[in-house]
């Protein structure tokens, strides 16, 4: 599998989890000891239980947004993704930059997001 295919699979899984908020979909994205940084300098969510709990506490409702993305960089260990999240009901648009550190099995062992409102 190419690096672009790996990050495409991962982002598609992320979007599935985003829409479902299903703990199994969320866990499938991350290694058991993964770190999820919601902001680069904020303490991360650590491990499956912490990631799932915080994800669900901060969840968007299903179908409440659209997401377009493209890879900026993809290597076997690291992917950088640029995305745009739109919440049509609120007319809110966010620009996202994600850095995903990938494990050999295709799950993230570290995820950091930067986002800013348009």
From TrEMBL:
SUPFAM superfamilies: NTF2-like (SSF54427)
Domain of life: Bacteria
Residue span(s) of domain SnoaL-like: 13-96
Record protein name field: SnoaL-like domain-containing protein
Taxonomic lineage from the root: Bacteria, Bacillati, Actinomycetota, Actinomycetes, Micrococcales
